[in-house]
Design goal:
Layout lengths: L5 E4 L6 E2 L2 H14 L7 H22 L5 H13 L10 H14 L3 E2 L3 H11 L3 E6 L6 H10 L8 E4 H4 L6 H14 L10 E5 L2 H10 L3 E4 L13
Parallel strand pairs: 1-4, 1-6, 4-5, 6-7
Antiparallel strand pairs: 2-3
């Protein structure tokens, strides 16, 4: 525990996991309300999945951030195969509807060990944060979820790609991470090798952090879990 002074965490599939019911209900909503070409529910679900994967790949490659509104527009366009039906859709109202649905079917803590490890890290007066890329759900919504799940009790700050317009592994978002850490610690000396970023993605989390001289640790997408960072 004494090896690192600051622990940075990815959010999705690192500290929390999605509620599968949310994705089902979201697809049903679009299938019912915006399905002018009569796509099947399975086709709508596939479109959501493909847009999510595509935008994630673009964000990783370009290093910027495709907004939630842009992603929902891509889904609407692919469901209807043109834009003549979607010009009058109020995107702010649509996102509010999706946010309400997200709160009705919220994500959960990744596993029972997550809070235990965060508590252990904070007991040693280490500082912590979330550094997360966003997609269909904005950072402002995720901040409410971390509060709802009790994660914010163990966090000193949170950085989301849609709020800074950079996505991991872009070095600029890691620069922001380092700046926030230095500000948080108010001049207390900390070297880059005393900072560790933990996440599930070998590109955005591991490669991105290591390219900036920060230690990185991959969990959940391999044989390791959050417990291994304190062993």
């Amino acid at each position: 525990m004494g090896l690192f002074k600051h622990y940075s965490f990815d959010l999705w599939f690192t500290l929390i996991k999605s509620n599968p019911e949310f994705k089902k209900e979201r697809a049903k909503y679009f299938h019912k309300n915006f399905n002018f070409n009569n796509k099947t529910l399975n086709e709508v679900e596939t479109i959501f999945r493909n847009v999510d994967l595509m935008c994630n790949s673009i964000n990783e490659k370009i290093g910027k951030n495709i907004s939630a509104e842009e992603m929902y527009l891509m889904v609407l366009y692919q469901i209807n195969e043109d834009n003549k039906y979607i010009g009058d859709i109020n995107l702010q109202e649509l996102y509010t509807e999706m946010e309400t649905m997200f709160f009705n079917y919220p994500p959960s803590i990744f596993n029972f060990q997550t809070i235990e490890v965060l508590h252990s890290i904070k007991q040693f007066k280490n500082t912590t944060n979330i550094l997360s890329n966003t997609a269909f759900i904005k950072g402002s919504t995720l901040r409410q979820i971390t509060n709802y799940l009790g994660l914010d009790l163990y966090l000193d700050f949170q950085i989301y790609s849609d709020e800074v317009n950079f996505s991991k592994p872009n070095g600029k978002i890691y620069d922001l991470l380092i700046e926030n850490i230095m500000t948080l610690r108010k001049g207390t000396k900390i070297d880059l090798n005393e900072i560790i970023h933990i996440g599930d993605n070998p590109i955005s989390d591991i490669k991105g952090a290591e390219n900036k001289g920060i230690k990185a640790f991959q969990i959940n997408s391999n044989q390791l879990t959050i417990v291994n960072i304190i062993e």
